[in-house]
Amino acid sequence: MTTGNPAATDPLWVDEILLQGRSTDICLRLPEPVDRGTLRRLVTGAQARLAAAGLRPGGAAALRLPPSLAYVVNLLATWRSGAQAILLDHRLTDHEVGRALERLTPQVVVAPVRTGGGGLRIFVDVTEGVTAYADRPAVSGHAVIQLSSGSTGPSKVIGRTAEDLVAEVHRYTRIDGVALPGERIILLPSMVHVLGLVGGLLYGLHAGVELVPPERLAGDAVLAAIAADDSPATVLGVPFHIGLLASTRPTGPLPQFKRMTTGGELVPAAVAAAFADRHGVPLGNMYGMTEVGVIGTDLHGRHRPSIAPAPGIEVREVDGELRVSCPASPYVGLSDPTRWADGWLHTRDAGTVDAGTGLVTVRGRLDSQVSVGGLKVDLTEVEATVAALPGVAAAVVVFDGAITAYVQPDGPLSQEVLDELLAERLAGYKRPRTLRLVAQLPRTTTGKLVRSTDALRTAAT
């Protein structure tokens, strides 16, 4: 479907994989229902507007749109035009967007002219405008360009082909525990990033699963979305959303609530337990990366914290690092054998692969292993211990010449109390030498905690 550079995406895959089905079938509920016939008409109209602004097959369109029907329509229209979609999170600054556009030189940029809805709306009403940018072909033959979340440093430019996306959509259909045709996905993560994009939007369109973003980013709104229909519902989110639901009490029984599936960071055991106590449904775990999509899952919560490799994905452990099968480098303009080499992606995650069962256990970032006085300390263990303390909403532990913990309190909390609690739970050489209370820990646009020491220092001051 792609033939190198410039991009030459065969647009037929959009209709065959994503837009097929009866015209009357509901695919999105925003909260007004959008059926497949309406979606196809909207996509056709957007194709005409993109072409009029200068988008050509083999070119690229940069989408700087918040989660909205406009985003979905313009994404599908770009691919249906045989062009590359560059996904720019709407929360990026003008400076960040400008740097991306200079590097990726799209033919057109799609951005809001008018936006309606409050700040807590998950999907908003958008009137978009299309402007010409550069009369050049796309920089690569990928169907989609994404920027990594940047939780540990600068964002990377990552490309995936149409074949990659189609293969991942088909991979989802073979995973035990995903939402089934006729069911619903309560969609919480951004569709600019891989979990919401493929695990939510693309899989839902392909499989005939209704996508239902709640009206607001609030626990009661999520539960209201589950209760709004009798069909089974799976909540798709990240650990932040688990905490949100764990602290929200249902007003009545929710037999439609089938399970919650989370991607992103490791879920603290205390948060998982609080969610299970509150809702009594399986909390499934998913491990993936922007570069390759879903890597492994445990959607029934049977193997926590381990996961089983997704169909067609091979995971190896090499010198304590997890490596994932990846036929071609996903990086655009980057040749770094420490990230990808010989068909293997270096995840930079520490972990193990059980030789008997094949189960994969992710231990955290590879750089979380530090030496203190000649003794090895796993910062992931220290961070999990701090995060589980009473009165702690979130925590990040880094090595900054010494072990330093940045802690976001959940109510009154002092450094003295923290130190006393940690003295009961951690050996002396593992305990943070510095404790810093932060009103709000910085997060990426996907909700992951930022681990950059510079950003954490800034937040602490």
UniProtKB/TrEMBL annotation:
Residues 48-321 form the AMP-dependent synthetase/ligase domain. It holds the Pfam family AMP-binding_C. One of its GO terms (molecular function) is medium-chain fatty acid-CoA ligase activity. GO terms for biological process: fatty acid metabolic process. Coiled coil: none annotated. Belongs to the ATP-dependent AMP-binding enzyme family. This is Acyl-CoA synthetase (AMP-forming)/AMP-acid ligase II. Keywords: Ligase. It comes from Micromonospora echinofusca. InterPro entries: AMP-bd_C (IPR025110), AMP-bd_C_sf (IPR045851), AMP-dep_synth/lig_dom (IPR000873), ANL_N_sf (IPR042099). Residues 381-448 form the AMP-binding enzyme C-terminal domain.
